[in-house]
Design goal:
By secondary structure, the protein is of the alpha/beta class. 43% of the residues lie in helices and 12% in strands. Bound molecules: iron/sulfur cluster (SF4). Residues 70, 72-74, 77, 79-80, 116-117, 148, 398 line the site of iron/sulfur cluster (SF4).
């Protein structure tokens, strides 16, 4: 690398580490050319300044996939079944409530209801189930659905997005998950999810939600054939909205699993690319508080390394997950292991809630919670361990 370029990169890293804003072009230069160690160090400096208590967090939650029926047919998705397909199912209210009850018993504080875009589930179905969960388990936070579901429900029930958001919120939804963002940039999004709303619409729904007082997270699924410039463009699109609303609580990049679906054979984002993306995200998002590293799709070792590349959170123990695991994510974890991953990286582990408040700070290993039931149940095991009470071929979202 020419000496002038190295100085430019060193200056940029120092500027960003000190909290200065970097442009998308500068982020791209750092993503492609900055030495890995220096990039990680700069991102970690930002993380240390934001979180001088040296705490890294995790959450206990359950991802309840309420239906696999979906008419959006994303090309990367191995979870969905088309409407009327014989393998389509939708959980009954009783089954969803039973799963919520199990989650509460295991210490979960958050439920993520995520499902297909079923043409049979309109706004009333969501209102009914949210109200029922809140009535029976008032302590559970419903961090659920997302912008794609708002668009879908709006179409199914012939309602404007703002009204869908308001009605869901009134029924009990606390915040939106960042799911469905995939990659927001037009070219790659059209290739992998041609029937999904476009990236501008996804962002506009989130902006409306933030204006109505419903916060959310934002995600990024890397590794479906997008270019480096498109990766950075995704970050720019999210940051621009965040400048106007401040409603994204965290940014959560993860890598696509190409094992079981139509995009098999595409280049998966490598572990190094993932670590570089984590670091650049921390430097680029001077306006987003939290950055989550994923162990689910990249493995626990890389998940742990993200804590040295700017991440302050390792996400969820995930008592249940079926969508990403259907696509090929093989990793499992449990509470004890996540605590140990965090501690052995030199950080203080803490269980958080949806708002990132610390519920329990694990300063003394001798007092760590011991409950081997608090571990991941995924597609291959979830239905065996957690029998489905009833299935039907209804349909609905992501
Ligand atoms: S909208 Fe969600 S469930 Fe439906 S195909 Fe796409 S990723 Fe799968």
């Amino acid at each position: 690398m020419p000496a002038q370029d190295s100085r430019e990169i060193a200056d940029l890293l120092s500027h960003a580490a000190d909290g200065g804003r970097i442009s998308p072009a500068e982020a791209l230069l750092l993503y492609t050319d900055a030495p890995l160690h220096a990039l990680g160090e700069a991102a970690d400096a930002v993380r240390r300044r934001r979180y001088p208590d040296n705490i890294a967090t995790y959450i206990i939650d359950r991802n309840i996939n309420y239906t696999n029926v979906c008419l959006t047919a994303c090309k990367f998705c191995a979870f969905y079944r088309a409407p009327k397909h014989e393998e389509g199912w939708t959980h009954t209210d009783e089954e969803i409530l039973r799963r919520c009850g199990e989650a509460v018993e295991l210490g979960a504080t958050q439920i993520m209801l995520q499902g297909g875009h079923s043409p049979e589930l309109g706004i009333e179905w969501y209102e009914r189930i949210f109200a029922a969960i809140k009535a029976e388990y008032p302590t559970l936070t419903l961090h659920s659905l997302g912008a794609s579901e708002v668009v879908h429900i709006g179409r199914t029930s012939h309602l404007p997005h703002a009204e869908v958001i308001t009605r869901l919120h009134t029924a009990g939804l606390d915040s939106f998950a960042g799911a469905g963002a995939e990659i927001l940039v037009k070219r790659p999004r059209t290739v992998i999810a041609p029937l999904k709303e476009d990236g501008e619409t996804w962002l506009s729904v989130m902006e409306t939600a933030h204006q109505l007082g419903v916060e959310s997270t934002a995600t990024f699924m890397m590794g479906t054939g997008e270019t480096n410039a498109e990766r950075i463009e995704h970050l720019r699109m999210v940051r621009d909205v965040q400048d106007r609303t401040g409603g994204f609580r965290s940014f959560i990049p993860w890598t696509y699993q190409p094992e079981n679906n139509h995009l098999k054979g595409r280049t998966q984002a490598t572990s190094l690319e993932y670590l570089r993306m984590i670091a650049v995200s921390r430097l680029f998002f001077d306006n987003v508080n939290h950055l989550q590293g994923s162990w689910l799709t990249t493995g626990k070792d890389i998940g742990q390394l993200t804590l040295h590349f700017g991440a302050d959170d390792l996400g969820s123990v995930m008592l249940e997950e079926n969508v990403v695991s259907s696509a090929g994510a093989k990793h499992r974890s449990n509470r004890t292991e996540l605590i140990e991953l965090i501690r052995s990286s030199g950080r203080i582990p803490a269980q958080r809630d949806t708002l990132y408040r610390h519920l329990s700070v694990h300063t003394d290993p001798a007092e760590d919670p011991v409950d081997d039931r608090v571990h991941s149940h995924f597609a291959s095991t979830a239905l065996k361990l957690l029998p489905v009470a009833a299935k039907s071929s209804a349909g609905a979202s992501n």
